[in-house]
Amino acid sequence: MNNESKKLTIILPTKNRPECLLRLLRYYVEVGFQGILCIGDSSEGEHLECNKRQIKMFGGRLDIVYKEYPELDEPQCSQKLANIVNTPYVAWVADDDFLVPSGLEKCMVFLEDHPDYSAAHGLSIKIKVKNNAVFGPIVDCKFIDHQAVEEAESASERLLNYAKHPSTTSFSVHRTQTLQLILSNNHLVDDRVFAGRFPEYILVIKGKIKELDCLSLIRGRLSYKYSSSEQQNIYFWLTNEKWLTYFKIFEDVFIKELMKKDEIGLNKAQEVVRQFLAHFTYFRLRDTYRAKYPHDYDSLFCRKASQTKRELEDGLSLFKRLKYLIPGLQRFRRKLIDFGVISSAHINRHEKLLPLLDPSSPYHIDFMPVYHAVTVTPEKME
What we know:
- By secondary structure, the chain is an alpha/beta fold.
- The chain is built from 18 helices and nine strands.
């Protein structure tokens, strides 16, 4: 690990998941992370006491800043942590995810050389542990395409592209001053949907976002601790009595940011922002409906798409017969699966993990510390 990591702070909000925190602390020790871990703990009771013991145990091997933030939700906790960061770069991670220091270093080098970019990230992998446990064998593993890549020259174009292809900027490497400035607006709204996504949209306005060919994030699939089912439900969100007030605040801030960044007039900025907000609301409604009523969604909106998808999946048997005869066909099949064109259910789960365990994989070295952190239980470490 080179000295580039010393320019980085990882902010880590956590709540009532001491096993996840232990897993992460072990991981960052194994990879020799030399930056700062800034941990905001909203835990309660014995969970809080357990976290304190673990912080003390690892304090001599990691540079840890530990803060207790009882009763704060995740956006509030993240903002508190971001405000005390004094390194040039900062990254955010949930307590069940892993950031790869070598990939983060490449992102920092890129940002040093490209001042018109506000953030950068590498590739992402999602893993699932047996029985949704913190420790145990990995039963599912795949590359995912969920992080933002926005390289259009104008802020307006980036914002509209981002609305049409919802993703996240949360796990990218950010310039600290930019992120702190963005988060300073979070106090304007007390709403998880607006406040939670607000920084991402402003970041897209502020500058471009780059994806590099390196591994920078491995995501877990554990249940979420900060938000209630009401907070995540789009219907509760839309019917909140303060929704219109928050919407107007959201709109006004975006209009001002676009006018400043693109040097455009009020009417043009309003048109762009309202188009963006229409896309934003549509996609949240669509995704909520699809999750709750998948069969109705399929019949109402996706009949043709589903037919095409089934036809592609029916052809997988042909792929299996020809993949060893036609060079590149297996790689093409994997791309179709990674981008969701065909279902990952049709690929053997063990088959998806094997390439990362192969030393010839360009991502093997960065993946193996995560593999060890997840599959080796604390008892076996003793």
